[in-house]
């Protein structure tokens, strides 16, 4: 790759049904074996379940869940001298959204339930309320970064 030019990040296109690029990001994250239509069915089914359970717009709940789960800082291992330090690093907004989506999907797959759509809907509802395993993961990441704040001067 050339070092001279900075490549512009390509943002995903907006989703056809909800007209949101965040939904399209979620579809591409849940994708397995290149089957995009299956991933879309899962997401839309989960959104239907959210609409039935909460009696409100599923897109608003989804956006709130992603905002709640997205981390502001993360830790990165940095080797200085002979020892390795856990250095807290600020996360860019786009990377934070991606991490949040990955955590929601990861913990939805680990949940108990009949279908992935039900599990995903439950995880999104919990994340929007401020509970659930994905919120716990975000809090754990922030706690680790706070406890290693002393090593922040090793940031590069």
Automatic annotation (TrEMBL):
One of its GO terms (cellular component) is small ribosomal subunit. Residues 3-149 form the Small ribosomal subunit protein uS7 domain. This is Ribosomal protein S7. Keywords: Chloroplast, Plastid, Ribonucleoprotein, Ribosomal protein, RNA-binding, rRNA-binding. InterPro entries: Ribosomal_uS7, Ribosomal_uS7_bac/org-type, Ribosomal_uS7_CS, Ribosomal_uS7_dom, Ribosomal_uS7_dom_sf. Gene3D superfamilies: Ribosomal protein S7 domain. It comes from Ectocarpus siliculosus (Brown alga). One of its GO terms (biological process) is translation. GO terms for molecular function: rRNA binding; structural constituent of ribosome. Pfam families: Ribosomal_S7 (PF00177). Belongs to the universal ribosomal protein uS7 family.
């Amino acid at each position: 790759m050339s070092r001279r030019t900075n490549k512009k990040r390509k943002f995903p296109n907006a989703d056809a049904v909800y007209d949101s690029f965040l939904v399209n990001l979620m579809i591409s994250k849940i994708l397995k074996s290149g089957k995009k239509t299956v991933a879309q069915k899962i997401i839309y089914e989960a959104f239907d379940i959210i609409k039935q359970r909460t009696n409100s717009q599923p897109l608003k709940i989804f956006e709130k869940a992603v905002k709640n789960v997205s981390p502001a800082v993360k830790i990165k291992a940095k080797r200085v001298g002979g020892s390795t330090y856990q250095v807290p690093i600020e996360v860019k907004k786009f990377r934070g959204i991606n991490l949040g989506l990955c955590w929601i999907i990861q913990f939805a797959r680990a949940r108990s339930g009949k279908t992935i759509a039900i599990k995903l809907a439950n995880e999104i509802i919990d994340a929007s309320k401020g509970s659930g395993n994905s919120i716990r993961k975000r809090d754990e990441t922030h706690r680790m970064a706070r406890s290693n704040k002393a090593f922040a001067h090793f940031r590069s």
